[in-house]
Amino acid sequence: MNALGNIRASAGGYGYLKQWLWWLGLLTMGAGEAANLIAYGFAPAALVTPLGALSVLVAAVLSSKLLNEKLYFLGKLGCFLCLLGSVIFVMHSPKHDEVTSFAELSDKMTNYAFVYYVITIILMSVIIKMVFVPRFGNTNVTVYLLICSAIGSLTVVCCKGVALAIKETINTNVNNISSYIFWLLLGSSIACIMIQMVYLNKAIDIFSTNVVTPVYYVMFTVLVIMSSGILFREWEHMSIEDILGCFIGFLILMIAVFLLNIVKETQYNSNNIVVH
Question: Which residues cross the membrane (predicted)?
Answer without folding.
Answer: 20-40, 47-67, 73-91, 112-132, 144-166, 178-199, 211-232, 244-263
